[in-house]
Amino acid sequence: MLSIEMKLIISILETTNEEADVHGTVNRSIKIPSQIAGKLLQKLQNEGLIKGQKGVIETDATQRLRLAVRAVDLGADLEAVSRLLRWQEFESMAAFALEQNGYDVSKNLRFKHGGRRWEIDIVGCRKPLVMCIDCKHWHRRLNPSELRKIVEKQIERTRAFAASLPNPTSRIECVRWNYVEFVPSVLSLLEGSSSFYDDVPIVPVLKLQDFLTNLPVYAGSLRHFVKSPTTKLFNS
Hints:
The chain is of the alpha+beta class and 236 residues long. It has two domains: 2-85, Winged helix-like DNA-binding domain superfamily/Winged helix DNA-binding domain (Arc Repressor Mutant, subunit A), CATH 1.10.10; 88-235, Trna Endonuclease, Chain: A, domain 1 (3-Layer(aba) Sandwich), CATH 3.40.1350. It has helices at residues 2-15, 22-30, 34-46, 61-73, 78-82, 87-100, 144-164, 208-218; strands at residues 20-21, 51-53, 56-58, 104-113, 116-126, 129-135, 180-188, 196-197, 200-204, 225-227, 234-235. The longest helix is centred in the middle third of the chain and has 21 residues, at 144-164. It is elongated.
């Protein structure tokens, strides 16, 4: 039954980029009896993983991410599942979580510093914190060496962004603050072997809400950069 559930979830992910007929497209694609499919679909709906109405499956970005995680937990290949998710879904989920926690959000923030062009996937501002998030839509699990490079690059981006401010052309909220703490972080689809690397948090997207809720308590223990009128840039 677990194998059938995994295949059904994969089929839902494949077909819910647009609306899919419950007893047509999904069932035919995995060739399982409609009675079994119906029970599994009802189970997924009861768990809040899909919405069904008048024979049509509907999913939002959060549900599709939850379905993807469930499929991998059931044994699906991470690379295959990741390719079924749109990049925009991943970023939109992160932006929504930040906004729900009172952050002013900018996506794909581009800036110049040190003669280079830089870009940060998502920047969330809630005084005095500025979350600089790198959304990693990984197609496979990473080894420690690869993870180290990703974290180091995000630290570099965050440091450059902090050093580039104040910038009169920037419309981002934190430009007007007297004291700012810039926190680099990495967002992933799945929970990895480590939640931190060099004091930089690596947060599964479905746990971002909890992470942000608790962030004010332990933000000072994370890798961050401080900028204030008396301190141009301080690396903590």
